[in-house]
Amino acid sequence: MLQSKDSSEANFKIPNIKFTKLFINGEFVDSVSGNTFETIDPRNEEVIARIAEGNKYDVDLAVKAAREAFDNGPWPRLPPKERRRIMLKFAHLVLEHVEEIAALDAMDAGKLFSDVKTSEVPNVAEVLCYYAGAADKIHGTTLKMSSEIQGYTLLEPIGVVGHIIPWNFPSQVFAYKVAPALAAGCTMVVKPAEQTPLSALYYAYLAKQAGIPDGVINVVTGFGHTAGAALSSHMDVDKISFTGSTEVGRLIMQAAATSNLKPVSLELGGKSPFIVFDDVDVDQVAPLAFAGAIYNKGEVCVAGSRLFIQEGIYDKFVKKLEEIAKTWVVGDPFDPNTRHGPQVDKKQFARVLSYIEHGKREGATLLTGGNALDRKGYFIEPTIFINVTDDMKIAKEEIFGPVLSVMKFKTVEEVIKRANCTKYGLAAGVMTNNLNIANTVSRSIRAGVIWINCYFGLDPDCPFGGYKSSGFERDLGMEGLHKYLQVKSIATPIYNSPW
Ligand code: ADP
């Protein structure tokens, strides 16, 4: 592993932080309590800015604004083509500010600036465009009723939506949730993660510039157990859409159940298998397997953190992984040579290191890495364990760090069984040139997204979400829109119909 320069050497001008207050009813406002919290730069553990700390009272105000905008405001009532026009303008404004937003996420989350700039923020615009195009294609069906009744369905916006957003993809997940809800005609309160509040506030500002009416998008920054819990248990929120850990997903479902029974959608954790068969080109697939687990310092819900390698190529593949680790650059996310930056915060940093210690204690062999970097900030080496068994903690639990567990297998049947032996079911990778094996394995794995001979391939048109304890319902695609719609059936008697 190599180390990169820090950002002063990388010579990047960090933008000023423009937005630090809550965004409620079209205005940036202080929290009711006047409290603020620090958002920390994980590269150097310094304070980036103090952010308004919203709690129950601020959530109440934000929900009230969203309720008013839904019940009496123009947004749900606009002709869909108007919603489309405004959403396209929003997308356009996002593209005009790509660099500034990317810098915010890179600083707040320790994400690679170049990735956020060239991929994630442009993807926000793509997703907005995709759902802008869907806004005027929302329609129900005419029913062929059995008796002398005619019927049809109407798809109506579900109402006030609470979006609870994680810190690992602050921009992309914002778009996955906000864009379809806007297209559906909903109004909303967004609760970004406390580690990464900056870009959501920036998007709120751009939404207003684009012409999205006041009260339609509100952003309440603050902590999960206060602001997040107030949103998920609110009696006047009609739907919660959440991405985050399985533990918090469970709390959100409980809060929804014990309040007003609002429906929830959950996109949760994973421990995804990345399966490599003997027939692949090792030089081509090993970098994909490495990045599948280590990309974004492993802070990826679909990380392919369980690598199953068939026995015929096992030794060669492991050697290649070791070589890749040697040239992998860890350091400042603003340096274009860096391949991964710091973990998001001190808590995650400590958590990942404790999993690495567990791996060693459980008897797995450390192939590469295993340490924090000897510098300020939350940097961890890319870490590969071999001789991992299925029952080890590092093979079973989501680590959310740059840690890859490598296992060997013999047969197709065996690997399907072992890959499915997890409480999670978010994603899987299948690497083979044998079409029959690819088909069998992809249909046998119980997970929401299967990548054959690629990894991380996502598109606004591709529904994304999990099986089992990885959650339910989908972001993206038309499924990602329909969860913000209610189906209303309308029936009326019909007399003397010729049909
Ligand atoms: P962690 O930060 O421990 O990894 P998550 O990744 O699940 O937790 O957090 C994702 C989002 O859920 C964040 O916006 C966080 O503030 C929020 N959250 C955390 N706890 C709760 C809770 N009890 N109720 C609602 N939201 C919560």
Would you kindly provide a written description of the structure presented here, covering whatever features stand out?
By secondary structure, the protein is α/β, with parallel strands linked by helices. The chain contains 16 helices and 24 strands. It has helices spanning 7-10, 56-71, 80-96, 98-109, 113-134, 170-184, 198-210, 224-232, 246-258, 282-294, 314-327, 346-362, 393-396, 412-420, 435-444, 477-482, and strands at residues 2-3, 22-24, 27-29, 36-41, 46-52, 142-143, 149-157, 160-164, 187-191, 217-219, 239-243, 264-267, 273-276, 306-310, 329-330, 365-368, 383-386, 403-409, 424-425, 427-431, 449-452, 467-468, 471-472, 485-493. The strands form 7 sheets. The chain has a 7-stranded mixed beta sheet with strand order 16-17-18-14-13-20-21, with helices on both faces. The protein has a 6-stranded mixed beta sheet with strand order 10-9-8-11-12-23, sandwiched between helices. A 3-stranded antiparallel beta sheet has the order 6-7-24, with no helix packed on it. Helix 10 (282-294) links the parallel strand 13 (273-276) and strand 14. Helix 4 (98-109) packs across helix 5 and helix 10 crosses helix 11 (314-327). It is globular. The termini are far apart. The mean pLDDT is 96.
Distance between the termini: 74 Å
Describe the global form: globular
Helix content: 25-40%
Widest sheet, order of strands = 16-17-18-14-13-20-21
Strand content: 15-25%
Radius of gyration: 24 Å
SS element count, helices: 16
Structural class: alpha/beta
Total beta-strand segments: 24
Low-confidence stretches: none
Biggest sheet record: 7 strands, mixed
Heterogens: adenosine-5'-diphosphate
Rounded mean pLDDT is: 96
